[in-house]
Structures are given as structure tokens and as C-alpha cells.
Amino acid sequence: MSTIEDRAVGPHSRQSDSTDHERLVLEARNVDFNWADLPFHYVPGQPMATHVLNVLHLLLPAGEEFFVEVFKKALPLIKDDQLRLDVQGFIGQEAMHSQAHSGVLAHFDAQGVDLTPFTDQVRWLFGKLLGEKPHRSVRRQHNWLLEQVAFISAIEHYTAVLGEWILDSPALDAIGADPVMLDMLRWHGAEEVEHKAVAFDTMKHLRAGYWRQVRAQLAVTPVLTLLWIRGVRFMFSVDPCVPPGTKARWRDFFRAARRGLVPGPRRLIGVVGSYYRPGFHPSELGGLERAVEYLAVSPAARASH
């Protein structure tokens, strides 16, 4: 089981990026999920809440494959032993996340729901637009690697916030959301909270710079917002369980957010600003104790042992 201890890390080394923040031994859990009985609207009677969560399955397989490839390239540049171990754990966890979400996509495909018009665009975004740039000088390749790490750190800020939210979402239990999907989302969310500082600490260790940190988040925030909106609209367009022509409506989203079935905009907006503060560190986000507690009882995580 993971252990927790305090440590301090500094501006350009693992030992002083922040003071007295949480420590975990990161492990990749070889989880498995059976989707045979998954209803299409796994949040019962709530296509909006279901499809807001479905965007995770659309984005994360390609996104987390990208994370893995970038951090494999960054690993030889890391001089701090503890950070190197954390990055290895991060790589293992993200690879498993990608596989788990790909399993949901395969389930949809088996049900005759074609998601490739959207997922192909996501693969282009991570594989081509943000991927490796050939025929560059060594210096330019290094600078692009720093940009990639900064982009991932910015995205991980959101995944940590979403992970903390899904771990504390009793409304989904109360409404009868599918327990296998809930376990999958909460296992994933807990691991995002576990490794919430790894990408950020790597960015600082490699001296990517504060302005690169800010610039990456300024780019990531609107792109993620647009992708989420387009993803929900796309899921409604292929949903076989709603009347043809049914559109995603903002009032349905805000209603679901008020009920606690999806994270509300206030929660997300509140944490975005903190990332721009020069002294910010992801340990401020909290949620670690709940994450460790959930991983101790998660059916999938327990079965993986």
C-alpha cells in the first residue's frame, strides 16, 4: 500500500519546489472492468450528466498516450532520484488509464456507436499538433519538450481537480449511477490526485520557466473547454436512446451541476486562477487522504492485487 511522508522541494530541484507537501509511492494498478452490463445512460435518466462524463473517454486514451511518450523522453533528463521514481510511477499509471478508457470506447463500438469522428480529431491534436516535431535542432527539440511538459502540467491541474470532485460526488451514488463506471472514474480520479504534482515538479525541475507555465495554461483552458462542449454535443448526436435531433442544452448542464451530478463551473473557475500564482504548488489542491482511502476499498484496485 502507498505510504505518505512529508518532504520539501525547491525551485529547480525535487527538494525545494514546495514545503511540507504530501508524499506517495506511486504504483500502477493493473485494473480490469467488465462493461457487459453498462447502460448507455449510466447516470440513470441523465443523458447530459452521462455525456459530460463520457468526454473523459473520448479525450483520455490519446491524451494519456501522449503523456506517456513525453515523460519517457523527459526521464533521462531528470537528475533527482525521487522525482525519477515518481515519473516512472506516473508513466505506469497514465498508461493504465489510457487502456481503461479505451475499453469503454471498445464497448461503445461493440454496441454500434461510432465515436471515431471525434476521437480521430483528438488523436490528431495530441499526435500531430502537440506531438514530436521532426527535423529540429537539438536545442529546438529540447525547447519543444519543455513546452510539452508544460502543456501536460496544465492539463494535470484539471485532472487533479476533476479527480478530487469524483471522489466526493455522493449525488451520483444517490441517483444510482452504474457502480462499475463509478469505480472506474473514482479509481482514475484517485490516481490523478495521487500524482497531481509529478508533471508540475518535472516542469520546475527542467527549468521550463514561469512564463511557459502561464502560457501553457492560457492555451489549455480554452481548448479543453471547447473540446468538452464539442464532445458533449457529439455524444448527443450519436446517442441512440434520445429522440433524433435532441440537442445538448446549457440549462440541462447547469441543472445537473446544481444537483452535483457534474462538476460546476464555479468549482473549475475557482481553481484555474491559482495556477497562475508564482508560488503555487499542486499540493494545495488537497484530496490526497480521500484518494488513498478510496484506493483501499475500490473493487477494481483491490482485485488488481
TrEMBL record:
InterPro entries registered for this protein in UniProt: UCP07580
The entry lists its GO molecular-function terms as:
hydrolase activity
Q: Does the keyword Hydrolase apply?
A: yes
The record ties this protein, via Pfam families, to: Metal_hydrol
Its keywords, alphabetically, are: Hydrolase
Ranges for the region named Disordered are 1-21
Answer whether the UniProt record assigns the keyword Amino-acid biosynthesis to this protein. no
Please give the name of this protein.
Metal-dependent hydrolase
Q: Which organism is it from?
A: Mycobacterium asiaticum
